[in-house]
Amino acid sequence: MPLLRTLAVTAASAALATAVAAAPASASAGVSAASAAPRGAAPNYATVIVSCFSRPLVMPPDFLLACGDGNDRLGGLYWSHWGSDSAVGTGYEEANDCDPYCAAGHFHTFPVKIKLSDSRPWPGDPHLRHFTKLTITYPDTEPSWPHDLVRELWD
């Protein structure tokens, strides 16, 4: 019996410690939960970009453009503006030339400026809006193969 009582007390102590740790310590300091959210996580008031895995993201450090095969992605993203109607950032695009075919192709990296626009209510969460258009500008070189400068984003 003493062992069972010890286990019960230990479990109750662990539950209490978890509850205390989960309490919003920032509330007394006046810090909002949205500002304490990790980079890439979506605060509940934001306009988001939806990932390939249907996750809402705010100012993500990278973003997959080719969900099916991973042959095109944005990385090293720095966001100079993130608002309700648009977002502007810089980074690089890493794209596969798929020559002679994608499995044998080579990845190339291009500096990019990107703009997100056309925000609409997101069907995945009625409290969020999501960007539906991504425009890529290449300040230096751009891919030599056919590519879209304006892309419609998914829900």
Structure explained in plain terms:
- This protein has 155 residues and is of the alpha+beta class.
- Helix content is 19%, strand content 39%.
- The chain is globular, with a radius of gyration of 22 Å.
- The N and C termini lie far apart (56 Å).
- Mean pLDDT is 79; it is low at 1-37.
Give the topology:
Layout (H helix, E strand, L loop, with lengths): L1 H21 L3 H4 L3 H4 L10 E4 L5 E2 L5 E2 L7 E11 L4 E10 L10 E16 L2 E13 L12 E3 L3
Parallel strand pairs: 1-7
Antiparallel strand pairs: 1-2, 3-4, 4-5, 5-6, 6-7, 7-8
Key structural traits:
155 residues; alpha+beta; 8-stranded mixed sheet; 3 helices; 8 strands; 39% strand; globular
Unreliable stretches: 1-37
Quote the beta fraction.
Answer: 35-45%
According to DSSP, the number of beta strands is: 8
Q: Roughly how many Å apart are the termini?
A: 56 Å
Percent range for helical residues?
A: 10-25%
Structural class per helix/strand content?
alpha+beta
Largest sheet: number of strands, sense, barrel closure? 8 strands, mixed
What is the helix tally? Answer: 3
State the gist of this model.
The protein is an alpha+beta fold and 155 residues long. It contains three helices and eight strands, in the order H-H-H-E-E-E-E-E-E-E-E. Residues 1-37 have low confidence and may be disordered.
